[in-house]
Specification:
The complex is a heterodimer of chains A (117) and B (115). Chain A is built from no helices and 12 strands. Chain A is mostly beta strands. In chain A, strands 2, 5, 6, 10, 11 and 12 form a 6-stranded mixed β-sheet that branches. In chain A, strands 3-9-8-7 form a 4-stranded antiparallel β-sheet, with no helix packed on it. Chain A has a two-stranded antiparallel sheet with strand order 1-4. In chain A, strand 7 and strand 8 form a beta hairpin. The radius of gyration of chain A is 14 Å and the shape is globular. In chain B, a hairpin with a 3-residue loop joins strand 4 and strand 5. Chain B is globular, with a radius of gyration of 14 Å. In chain B, strands 2, 4, 5, 6, 9, 10 and 11 form a 7-stranded mixed β-sheet that branches. In chain B, strands 1-3-8-7 form a 4-stranded antiparallel β-sheet, with no helix packed on it. Chain B is mostly beta strands. Chain B starts with a strand and ends with a strand. Classes of the chains: A mainly beta (117), B mainly beta (115). At the A-B interface, strand 5, strand 6, strand 10 and strand 11 of A face strand 4, strand 5, strand 9 and strand 10 of B.
């Protein structure tokens, strides 16, 4: 079974609108972390936001917020006021903190976001 | 400048040749990782290292060898390259992860083509 599922291969959004990128995860580890990365067409991987499994509040970083619903095992990324520069591939990733995983990140297959002017 | 550097950025090699991808980080991070990125698969972990002289297999280790004699370097070697190893390879590092925010910091990647 996949540990990280991103069901949207591609998404389109109009400039200045908000967009939600979906991510569901599967783990039995009570301690884990969820990450979102952005990969623009230039290829580098850029860390965006982090949510710990014990964090009570949803993480926010500027225009990025993480809609963390622990019972549903979802960690959706919300980008507010989309900009043309937000066009990129977005990856959700999970790190399980115990059970011998040695803190590896497992990535989803990504969602390609296109922001239209 | 501090950071994580991969070399070469692009490499074309022939089937059966040995090729080594280099990774160097200046943060003194304990953990280092090698991922490959393929269309439709996202990023998959090849090998990782928790410290110098400590390495372990990831999800797709077959055909690859790593070493870590120094904390800052983590080279990845394809012993006998195959076309299925055509991919973009990313090296990453992180501090000793605890329960807090400890993201991976990625290099810019190496695009490898095996003909």
């Amino acid at each position: 079974a996949q540990k990280i599922t991103q069901t949207q291969p591609g998404m389109f959004v109009q400039e200045k609108e908000a967009v939600t990128l979906d991510c569901t995860y599967d783990t039995s580890d009570p301690s884990y972390g969820l990450f979102w990365y952005k990969q623009p067409s230039s290829g580098e991987m850029i860390f965006l936001i982090y949510q710990g499994s014990y964090d009570q509040q949803n993480a926010t970083e500027g225009r990025y917020s993480l809609n963390f619903q622990k019972a549903r095992k979802s960690a959706n990324l919300v980008i507010s006021a989309s900009q043309l520069g937000d066009s990129a591939m977005y990856f959700c990733a999970m790190r399980e903190n115990s059970g011998g995983s040695n803190y590896k990140l497992t990535f989803g297959k990504g969602t390609l976001l296109t922001v239209n002017p | 400048d501090a950071g994580i550097t991969q070399s070469p950025r692009y490499k074309i090699t022939e089937t059966g040749r040995q090729v080594t991808l280099m990774c160097h980080q200046t943060w003194s991070h304990s953990y280092m990782f090698w991922y490959r990125q393929d269309l439709g698969h996202g990023l998959r972990l090849i090998y990782y290292s928790a410290a110098a002289d400590i390495t372990d297999k990831g999800e797709v280790p077959d055909g690859y060898v790593v070493s870590r004699s120094k904390t800052e370097n983590f080279p990845l070697t394809l012993e006998s390259a195959t076309r299925s190893q055509t991919s973009v390879y990313f090296c990453a590092s992180s501090v000793i992860p605890g329960t807090g925010n400890s993201p991976l910091h990625f290099g810019n990647g190496t695009r490898l083509t095996v003909t």
